[in-house]
């Protein structure tokens, strides 16, 4: 199936590893020109170089923290200067620490809001004008199943990521007339380093092994396994494609059926 993405410019945040990296690879496989960012320069450079060699596409990368609004402004401008436009923007950021409400400090709350909500605002503000000029654009946020079903001890994620859904709905309503589609993807328990960190924390608190924790999460899904980053990435790439041209303002869960609500 031709997804109609060849030569589009796809910007993917936090793309040196995990879901972001899988997403950048997914767009590269479709012939997109890819812009990547992450905090760790060495890891990011290695990931970008691997994508260039593997897929033969142009890749632009820059290391910075997505909570720094000025850095986001500079990066998006550099991407547009190099490639001529920004067609697709995938916002992404590491999850906040696993904590209950009383254990979370005000600094924890500030950091979670900056990382998981305001970073999406920063990127959207910068990319939308480029998309308006071309009357075509895709903004896709990566959040979590917590937007539909709060997870114990993840109060920071439960709250901050729900705010992103409100942003997605608002942007979809306001900019649909400009040919810009805005959607959210909520992964379930997916085999990433982030999930391993959560399992380690749960293990320390419960006395169960990390393997037992991971197996229990897998058992909660009707498919009886954890998700793979590739499976989340393929959903994101589809949402960005011409095959999803009448889908906007939605939260698409990639969770193996874990969410039980209607």
Structure notes:
This protein has 262 residues and is of the alpha/beta class. It contains eight helices and seven strands. It has a seven-stranded parallel beta sheet with strand order 3-2-1-4-5-6-7, sandwiched between helices. Helix 4 links the parallel strand 4 (88-91) and strand 5 (137-142). The radius of gyration is 18 Å and the shape is globular. The two termini are 30 Å apart.
Features:
about 50% helix, 7-stranded parallel β-sheet, alpha/beta, about 260 residues, 7 strands
Structure described in brief:
By secondary structure, the protein is of the alpha/beta class. The chain has helices spanning 18-29, 41-55, 69-83, 106-134, 155-175, 193-206, 210-220, 229-240, and strands at residues 9-12, 33-38, 59-63, 88-91, 137-142, 180-187, 251-254.
- Main sheet makeup: 7 strands, parallel
Strand percentage lies at 5-15%
How much helix, percentage-wise, in residues?
40-55%
Using DSSP, what is the number of strands? 7
Helix-strand string: EHEHEHEHEHEHHHE
Number of helices: 8
Oligomer: single chain
On the 0-100 scale, what is the average pLDDT? 96
The value of Rg in angstroms is 18 Å
> N-to-C terminal Cα separation, in Å?
30 Å
Strand order of the largest sheet: 3-2-1-4-5-6-7
